[in-house]
Recover the amino acids of this structure.
């Protein structure tokens, strides 16, 4: 079985806790292979500096994670077939490059919280735009032990080690509250 290719939109990369979790899910259980473009990472870096006030060097390191951990995921969106109207795939002209990345990269999944993407036209190109929270809950239900291990490792690595409950609260704030809730019961029962 081949692993599906996926794009993390800039709004997912913008959340450090979620960006890190998605990276861990791509590396560990190989739920998907991440693809990215220089333009996407520049958009995320710019948002981190402009909206979160993160110093440029820290923002560059943040998005540089994709370059370091997924070097084979780099895609040049100019590989989009001629004549394809990418603007017909989104309501937001600023997201046209993400649609181009997904098509050029052969992505089957586009993870985003942005409601401007047009799901039906993207589906016509083989790209699903799932509800990220529900997608993760479903995967967690299918692989609960794997998810528990990943969350425990992420909590251990997070700022020198923090309680899992703090990580789950951060995930809830990062727009995946159902996942945080699904993980809370088993992890609390084991005393993590």
């Amino acid at each position: 079985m081949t692993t599906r290719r996926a794009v993390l939109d800039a709004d997912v990369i913008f959340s450090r806790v979620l960006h890190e979790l998605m990276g861990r899910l791509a590396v560990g259980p190989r739920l998907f292979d991440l693809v990215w473009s220089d333009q996407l990472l520049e958009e995320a870096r710019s948002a981190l500096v402009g909206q979160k006030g993160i110093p440029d060097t820290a923002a560059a390191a943040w998005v540089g994670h994709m370059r370091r951990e997924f070097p084979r995921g780099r895609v040049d969106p100019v590989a989009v077939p001629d004549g394809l109207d990418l603007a017909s795939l989104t309501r937001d002209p600023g997201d046209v490059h993400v649609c181009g990345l997904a098509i050029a990269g052969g992505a089957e999944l586009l993870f985003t919280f942005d409601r401007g993407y047009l799901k039906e036209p993207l589906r016509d190109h083989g790209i699903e735009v799932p509800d990220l929270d529900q997608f993760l809950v479903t995967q967690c239900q299918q692989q609960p032990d794997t998810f528990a291990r990943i969350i425990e490792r992420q909590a251990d690595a997070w700022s020198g080690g923090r309680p899992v409950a703090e990580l789950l609260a951060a995930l809830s704030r990062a727009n995946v509250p159902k996942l945080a809730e699904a993980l809370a019961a088993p992890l609390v029962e084991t005393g993590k």
